[in-house]
Structures are given as structure tokens and as C-alpha cells.
Amino acid sequence: MPTVAPLDLDAHVIAVAWLDDLAHFALADGVVHKLHDGHKWSELHDGLLCACPDLDAASLLTGGEDGRVMRLLANGESTELATIGRKWVTSIAAGPQGSVGFASGRNAYVRFSDGRQREFQHARAAEGLAFAPKGMRLAVARYNGATLHFPATEGKPTELEWAGAHTGATFSPDGRFLVTAMQENALHGWRLPDGKHMRMAGYPAKIKSWSWSAKGRWLATSGAPAAIVWPFQAKDGPMGKAPLELGTRGDTMVTNVACHPAEEIAAIGYADGMILAVRFADQKEVLLRRAGKGAITAMAWDRDGRRLAFGSETGESGIVDIAG
Questions:
Q1: Is 97 helix (H, G, I), strand (E, B) or coil?
Q2: Residue 192 contacts residue 132 (beta carbons within 8 Å)
Q3: Which residues contact 155 (CB under 8 A, 6 or more apart)?
Q4: Radius of gyration of the chain (CA)
Q5: CATH class held by domain 1-36+205-324
Q6: Chain center to CA of 98
Q7: Concatenated DSSP letters for 51-87?
Q8: Under a CB-based contact definition with an 8 Å cutoff, are residues 89 and 49 in contact?
């Protein structure tokens, strides 16, 4: 039976990440907590808005209401990477060779490992950011589509158009597809080699969480009373194919998803705080955590896929050991 080591915190959990095999919990109040030889924490921001691990899972990258971009190491050492004055840093992404992308208002920025920084201006707000899995290419979700920048060169950006407000971006692990979350409860995608469109609609709520399966064959998403899992095995991606619907629980909405690092299994977090693990092949379910006081807002597996760190909008957090 899975066992849960609880950690009761007092603010909305924005993100969780494993750094050097230690679970870190980034909270909206600007404090990052960890469990290691007791409960420790680091105060990074006057209000934290976004956070993600770097590509090596060696540090946590954060952005805040104070206009600062920070890097936190597992040993508690923190460094200011950038500051943009009294502006909110609303999105952050980890890039190759130690680069960091972040956004504020209509501007997206890329900071390189040597401290150089480039700024990219857009006509409307720069929303979600994502780096391509290969090369130095940054996608910026924006109103009426997405823009692909090549920060290491002076080349012209690639514009991908689709009407509506695009709020998040993710590349498929093989780099063939770019998918955006939209304000109108839908996903949109482009097959990058030829620009072909993909429309994934029918969600009753906004998609605020997504996760690619271990080999990039599936994209699991929140925004419905089940985890909606789209197939990306074929050259056309999910077009003409029905998604899997995993972990359906009546009217209780899925609020967060996290695919296992090795198996085609997803951890599914719900609006009532429950967490299930569900296998794609046969939809077998395992209860990882019973309902709590608030919606699950963040989850992350450790690199071995044995432990799952989670956090909620009320601060209820912890680590599930699936081996018991």
C-alpha cells in the first residue's frame, strides 16, 4: 500500500520539484520548502508566481511579483539571475545549456548561462513559455497563436496563427508538435514540419496542467472530470483519434496530472485533494491519497518513479511512497 508523509504548509503550492532527490515545494507567498533532516525553507520572493526545475533537476527556477528571477540549489543556496523592476514575472521555462526563459507583460526574455540576456517584444501579452527539446528555440503562447524565437541568432521568428487567447505552451518530446492551452477550454496544436493544425476541444474547464508520457506517446491533461490523454504516436498526432479518459470521478474535476518517468502511468490530482495513479493500458487505478482540504495544484515524480511529491491550493502537501 502507498504511504503518505504529510507536510502541512500555509499557502497555495505553485510547483513541486525534486532537486538532488529532495522534494521542494514552491509556495505563492515566495517561500520554497523542503524535507531533508527536518523541515527547511528558503525565502525567495515577495510573492511567487511561477517555478520549474532546470533540465538537470539540479536547481529550481522561480519568478515573482518582485520582478526577480531566482535559482535555488538543493543545498539552500540562492542566486538572483535577473531583475526587471516592478513588474511581475508570470511564466518561466528551463532551456538548454543553462538558459532560462521568462515573461512579463508583452515581453519574453532569455537569459544565457554567461549572463547575456535577450528581450523579445510582442503585440499582446506573452503567456506560457516552452523550449524545444533540441536546439535553442523558444515558444511563446500569445493572443491569436504562438511565436517561435531563435534566441541564439538574429533570425526572424516563426509565427503560428490561430484565433483566440493562448495561455500555455509545450513541445512534444520529439519536437514534432507544439501544443498550446487556450482560454476557451481547448488545446490547439501545430505539426511543426508543415504547420498542420490540431484542434483538441470539448473540455468543461480550462486546461491548467499537462504532462507527456515517458516516451512522448501520450499527452495527459486536466480540465475535465477525468484525465484526458491524447495519443501522439502517429504522424498526425491525435487528429481523428479519441483520447483516453482516465480516473473519471463523477463531477469532480481533475486539476493536476503528472506522468510517471518510466511507465505509461499518470498520477491524477483532483479538486477535492484526492490523488489516483492510473495505468494507460487497462485503466487500472490505485489510490495514492484520499481527499483533503483543497485542490491538488502541483505534483512531481522522483527520477526513479517511486515517490510522488504533491501540493494543494490550501498548502496541504506531502510525499507518497508507492512502495509503502
A1: helix
A2: no
A3: none
A4: 19
A5: mainly beta
A6: 18
A7: EEE-TTSSEEEEEETTSEEEEEETTS-EEEEEE-SS-
A8: yes
pLDDT at residue 37, as a whole number: 78
Q: Between β-strands 254-259 and 244-246, what pairing exists: parallel, antiparallel or unpaired?
A: unpaired
Cell of 39: 523541515
- Residue whose cell numbers read 514540419: 193
Cell of 138: 523558444
Query: Model-level pTM greater than 0.85?
Result: yes
* C-alpha dihedral sign at 223, 218, 55, 267: positive
Buried b (16+ CB within 10 A) or exposed e, 285-297: eeebbeebebbbb
**What phi, psi does 173 have (nearest 5°)?**
-60, -25
**At 96, phi and psi to the nearest 5?**
-70, 160
Q: How far apart are the C-alpha atoms of 98 and 116, rounded to whole Å? A: 12
User: H helices within the chain, ranges in order?
Assistant: none
Distance of CA 176 to the CA centre of its chain: 19
Cα separation, 199 vs 189, in Å, equals 6
Q: Say yes or no to pLDDT of 167 above 90.
A: yes
